[in-house]
Amino acid sequence: MAAYQTIVDLIRTSANAVSPTGFFVHGRRSDGSLEYNESFPQIHLYPFTTNPTGASDHINVANIVMAFWGQDSPESSNEEREAIIAAMDVLSDSFLSNLDENQIEIFGIRKEPQYRTLSATLSGYAITFNMRVFISPC
User: Span 4-29, mean pLDDT?
Assistant: First the structure.
């Protein structure tokens, strides 16, 4: 299977495991913003790069960029936004734990709170990390 599809499938599986009633989407940020009417929380996988470590061992290191979004609004109070961001922090931690439980090696994790993004309608957490993935030969 191709590296791209393997990685998207791994991320999707963990996203759905930690947020079964939420919504997962992958693509550019603008692709995600088109999904404003879908259920929350939303987990977005943005474009990522891969670094194959060698053709013979079928290992790729993927540099992942994701966002965990909760519904916000331009009228929300600081306390309401703080609660949304805190909940998405917990959700992103659960996601990373789920990946780890599935024996996916993750490292270089960086997390950053996000405030009223995409027309001030979403708040949450952005995360970046690297994951080492075995890609089965075609």
Answer: 91
Strands, DSSP E only, in 55-93? 59-71
CA-CA distance, 51 to 132, in Å (whole number)?
9
- Residue 106 · residue 99 · CB < 8 Å: yes
Q: How far apart are CA 54 and CA 75, in angstroms?
A: 51
Distant-in-sequence, close-in-space partners of 67: CB < 8 Å, separation ≥ 6:
32, 42, 43, 44, 46, 114, 124, 125, 126, 127
Residues whose CB falls within 8 Å of the CB of residue 21, separated by 6 or more in sequence, listed in order: 39
Residue 76 CB partners (closer than 8 Å, separation 6+): 84, 116, 123
Q: Average of pLDDT values for 78-100?
A: 96
Predicted confidence (pLDDT) per residue in 59-85, tens digit: 889 999 999 999 988 899 999 999 999
Between the alpha carbon of residue 69 and those of residues 22, 39, 52, 87, 91, the distances in Å are 10, 10, 30, 9, 10
CA gyration radius, the chain: 15
Mean pLDDT, range 11-38, rounded to an integer: 82
At 113, the amino acid letter reads P
